């Protein structure tokens, strides 16, 4: 039980520390939803992007907003300062053009499947469950401490 708790704390610290470092150095994290970028990127991949300040070129994978939706697609063409994008798994271009100023970032790398965990951690179910776990752990620890101090009663 003790080893499990240490492992849980260690994994949480690594995850939170990595996320904090990523955000502190100007990178963004996104969870890929859908299969439009398959096989390059798959649903549930954790995508790390940079705050883009260079020149966008065809072939680059960029992240941008289309309405309320976050899109991660490949740049196919650049027309009059706007981007024509496409998902790798799609046989057609996106119906819209993306202004270069609308690009939030450029794809750097992915961490396969970790996005599922990141999405789960954001849910109320996880937050309540982890809170309850630590409350129960604390109660068990205090109870065990009282038994030891009380001479086994």
Query: In total, how many beta strands?
Result: 7
Strand content: 25-35%
- Based on secondary structure, the structural category is alpha+beta
**Biggest sheet overview:** 7 strands, antiparallel
CATH-defined topology: Umud Fragment, subunit A
What would CATH call the class? Answer: Mainly Beta
Number of helices: 3
Average pLDDT value?
85
Order of helices and strands: HEEEEEEEHH
How do the strands of the widest beta sheet line up side by side?
Answer: 1-2-7-3-4-5-6
Q: What does the radius of gyration come to? A: 22 Å
CATH architecture classification: Ribbon
| Helix content estimate | 25-40%
How does the overall form come out from the CA principal axes?
A: elongated
Low-confidence stretches: none
Number of domains: 1
State the end-to-end distance: 22 Å
Q: What do we call the CATH homologous superfamily?
A: Umud Fragment, subunit A
């Amino acid at each position: 039980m003790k080893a499990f708790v240490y492992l849980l704390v260690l994994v949480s610290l690594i995850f939170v520390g990595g996320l904090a470092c990523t955000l502190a150095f100007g990178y963004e994290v996104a969870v890929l939803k859908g299969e439009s970028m398959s096989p390059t990127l798959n649903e549930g991949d954790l995508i790390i992007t940079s705050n883009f300040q260079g020149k966008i070129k065809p072939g680059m994978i960029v992240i941008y907003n289309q309405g309320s939706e976050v899109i991660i697609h490949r740049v196919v063409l650049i027309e009059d300062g706007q981007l024509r994008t496409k998902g790798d798994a799609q046989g057609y271009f996106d119906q819209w053009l993306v202004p270069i100023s609308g690009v939030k970032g450029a794809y750097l790398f992915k961490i396969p499947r970790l996005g599922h965990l990141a999405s789960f951690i954001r849910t109320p179910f996880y937050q309540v469950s982890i809170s309850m776990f630590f409350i129960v752990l604390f109660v068990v620890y205090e109870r065990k401490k009282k038994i030891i101090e009380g001479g086994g009663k």
